[in-house]
Amino acid sequence: MTTHVSTLANGLRVVTHEMGHLETVSLGAWIGVGARHDPAPQNGIAHFLEHMAFKGTGKRSAQDIAEEIEGVGGDLNAATSLETTAYYARVLKGDEDKALDILSDILQNSEFDETELQRERDVILQEIAASRDCPDDVVYDLAQDAAYPSQPLGRTILGTPETVEAITADGLRGYLGARYVAPRMVVSAAGAVDHGRIVDLAGELFGGLGTGDAAGNGARAVYKGGVTGSSQPFEQCHVIVGFEGPSHCEPDYFAAQVLSGLLGGGMSSRLFQEAREKRGLCYSIYSSVYGLSDTGVMTIHAATAPELADELLGVISTEIIRLAEAGPSEKEVSRSKAQLKAGLMMSLESSAARAEQMARQLICRGRLIDKEELVAKVDAVSADDVRGLIATMLAGVPTAAVVGAGARSKEHAQHVSEALRTAAVG
User: Fold this and answer.
1) pLDDT digits (tens, 9 = 90+) for 304-346
2) Residue 223 phi, psi dihedral angles, 5° rounding
3) How many CB atoms lie within 10 A of CB 46?
4) How confident is the model at residue 142 (pLDDT cuts 50, 70, 90)?
5) What angle, rounded to 10 degrees, do the helices at 114-132 and 45-52 form?
6) Cα torsion through 60, 65, 66, 70, rounded to 10
7) With 0-12 CB in 10 A as exposed, 13-18 as middle and 19+ as buried, what is 350?
8) Among the four residues 9, 62, 90, 377, which has the most C-beta atoms within 10 Å?
9) Residue-wise DSSP of 195-263
10) Which residues are catalytic?
11) Selection from 323, 225, 229, 212 nearest residue 273 by Cα
């Protein structure tokens, strides 16, 4: 397997990973622009732009785009996150020129027809409505807002009905022209690829892309933490407990991944064993770490019956405090590291995951990180590193969000926050 990186004259980077045993290619364009770049009055515009990219260009209608990619047996999709937006495809070997031609067309020549714009606006409004009916989405949005209040990171990726209604075709064109510039973009491909061919295609199709402003993410995010809740009725009570974590650029990032794994990363994790296996409080409980360029968050998420919320939150706070006080055992650190390394290695076997991984590394870190370096960073994490990190997290302000417990939702969140803060003071 061979990896190459080239940079075009306009600053666009092209990265490929040849996987000679495959007969397919996963490829796409990743842009270092996401929801945190949305101006407050246009909250949701990055996501709206992603939707509109498939709705017609000067030479292709929305139907043409769908028929052309599916005519070669491929598929085409996109996704918006807080710091990046991705447009990607998977095709058979030899059809990468078709896929890249379509991708370059939708990224540079979208027309934003008013009829299509209103139709897609309605689709996004339905997407927002669906998310408000989903307790997983509601509790995460509340937690994000509590962690980063009155900041871009605290707003939803989808936007609100009010901001989505206010987005215009001119607004989309302006956002596209200002943000979708070559130095912020990576064309990434993995599978049955030839680097020289992808570079030539990228130069032909994206070579005219403007250089623009390659500035970063604007104002630095400031984690605040806090408690929040919603009395909106759901069948189950969903809870999130979170802490400020390291950004993906900080040395502690891999320690955070190991910590997350041993706390709630699998069936052998502390929280799964205590909350589900011993007490039967929930079907699943898990921890995750999300690192951005200047901040990060570790969250624990679970769902239970409303009458069991206090007991479940008590288990979560107790296990966190126990871990901070006594530290993890060498055995569980070793197990979490093994899980993390296995996940990293398994991702290399997927061309789609590999294309995304390379693009994100170039956007976020400015360079590729090979598997040997990744494994070495995981192996270097010690039990003392994990204990020190959880103690640091516990010394900060936790984030707690609860939905589905009626009028007591915020009260539950307040209780777990107070328990954690009292332990930190003690």
Assistant:
1) 999 999 999 999 999 999 999 999 999 999 999 999 999 989 9
2) -70, 135
3) 25
4) very high
5) 130
6) 120
7) middle
8) 90
9) HHHHHHHHHHHHTT---------SSPP----EEEEE----SSEEEEEEEEE--TTSTTHHHHHHHHHHH
10) 50
11) 323
On whether the CB atoms of residues 298 and 393 are closer than 8 A, the answer is: yes
Q: Say if residue 416's pLDDT is above 70.
A: yes
Query: CA neighbours within 13 Å on the CB side: how many for 217?
Result: 21
Residue ranges and CATH numbers for the domains of the chain are 2-206 (3.30.830.10), 226-425 (3.30.830.10)
**Global pTM exceeds 0.70:** yes
- Distance between first and last Cα of the chain: 53
CA atoms within 13 A on the CB side of 351: 26
| CA–CA separation, 387 and 380 (whole Å) | 14
Q: Report, in angstroms and rounded to the nearest whole number, the Rg of the chain calculated over CA atoms.
A: 23
Looking at residue 139, its amino acid is V
CA dist list (Å): 390 to 261, 270, 288, 321, 398:
13, 14, 14, 9, 12
